[in-house]
C-alpha cells in the first residue's frame, strides 16, 4: 500500500520589486539657509507595481542639520512620512513633498555641502537616490561682501541662458549683482 502526501507551501517572494530607474526625483541638489529652510521636491513614479503605504525618508550623514517631513500645516517631526500608495497612471503617480531643515548649529562655512539619501520604499522594495544639501550661511555672505544689504537681482534666465520671467515648474537661474547664482524651481 502506497501513500502519497501532497504538501504545498505558499511562498512569498519579492516578485514585485520596484525598478529604481522608474523612480525619479525632480531635484538632487538643494540650497537652504536659516531664512529659507524648506526642501521642496517631486517624485515621478513610473513603475508598473503599486507601492502600498510607501515610506519616504531623507536620511542625512551629518549632525549639523536635521530634517522633518512637512505636509501643508502639519510637521511630522520625523525624517520620514508614510503615503497611502503610489501607482503608475493614477492621480498619485506624482507626489510633491517638503522637508523642513533645522540647523543644529550656525557655525559652518558658507556653501557647506551635506550629503544624504532620499529613500522610497515599502515592505517589498526600496529605492535610494543620493542628494546634496548646500548650507548657505547668510552671516558669512554679509561679512564677505562687506555690506548688510540684500542681494540685488540682475536678471532671471532659463536653462538656455535666455532672460525669462518667473515660470512655474521650470528650472530658472536668478543672477545677482554680487556674482551669486541661485537655481530655483517654483511649484
How does this structure look, described?
This protein has 187 residues and is mainly β. It is globular, with a radius of gyration of 22 Å. It starts with 22 loop residues before the first strand and ends with a strand. The protein has one helix at residues 138-145; strands at residues 23-25, 29-33, 38-45, 51-52, 55-60, 65-71, 74-75, 80-82, 85-86, 94-103, 112-121, 126-136, 153-157, 172-176, 181-184. It contains one helix and 15 strands; from the N terminus they run E-E-E-E-E-E-E-E-E-E-E-E-H-E-E-E. It has two domains: 20-137, Immunoglobulin-like; 150-187, no CATH class. The chain has a five-stranded antiparallel sheet, with no helix packed on it. A five-stranded mixed sheet has the order 2-12-11-5-8.
Count all strands and give the number.
15
Please tell me how large the radius of gyration is: 22 Å
Q: How would you characterize the largest beta sheet?
A: 5 strands, antiparallel
Discrete helix count: 1
- Measured by DSSP, the beta-strand proportion falls in 35-45%
The CATH architecture designation of the largest domain is: Sandwich
* Shape descriptor: globular
Helix-strand layout with pairing:
Elements: E1 23-25, E2 29-33, E3 38-45, E4 51-52, E5 55-60, E6 65-71, E7 74-75, E8 80-82, E9 85-86, E10 94-103, E11 112-121, E12 126-136, H1 138-145, E13 153-157, E14 172-176, E15 181-184
Parallel strand pairs: 2-12
Antiparallel strand pairs: 1-3, 3-10, 4-9, 5-8, 5-11, 6-7, 6-10, 11-12, 13-14, 14-15
Amino acid at each position: 500500500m502506497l501513500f502519497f502526501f501532497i504538501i504545498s507551501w505558499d511562498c512569498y517572494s519579492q516578485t514585485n520589486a520596484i525598478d529604481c530607474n522608474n523612480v525619479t526625483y525632480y531635484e538632487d541638489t538643494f540650497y537652504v539657509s536659516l531664512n529659507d529652510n524648506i526642501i521642496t521636491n517631486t517624485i515621478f513614479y513610473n513603475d508598473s507595481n503599486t507601492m502600498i503605504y510607501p515610506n519616504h525618508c531623507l536620511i542625512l550623514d551629518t549632525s549639523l542639520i536635521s530634517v522633518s517631513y512637512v505636509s501643508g500645516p502639519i510637521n511630522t517631526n520625523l525624517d520620514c512620512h508614510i503615503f497611502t500608495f503610489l501607482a503608475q497612471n493614477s492621480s498619485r503617480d506624482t507626489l510633491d513633498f517638503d522637508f523642513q531643515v533645522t540647523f543644529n548649529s550656525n557655525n559652518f562655512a558658507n556653501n557647506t555641502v551635506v550629503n544624504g539619501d532620499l529613500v522610497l520604499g515599502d515592505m517589498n522594495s526600496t529605492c535610494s537616490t543620493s542628494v546634496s544639501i548646500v548650507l548657505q550661511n547668510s552671516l558669512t555672505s554679509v561679512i564677505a561682501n562687506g555690506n548688510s544689504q540684500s542681494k540685488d537681482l540682475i536678471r532671471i534666465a532659463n536653462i538656455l541662458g535666455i532672460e525669462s520671467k518667473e515660470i512655474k515648474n521650470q528650472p530658472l537661474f536668478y543672477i545677482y549683482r554680487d556674482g551669486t547664482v541661485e537655481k530655483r524651481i517654483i511649484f
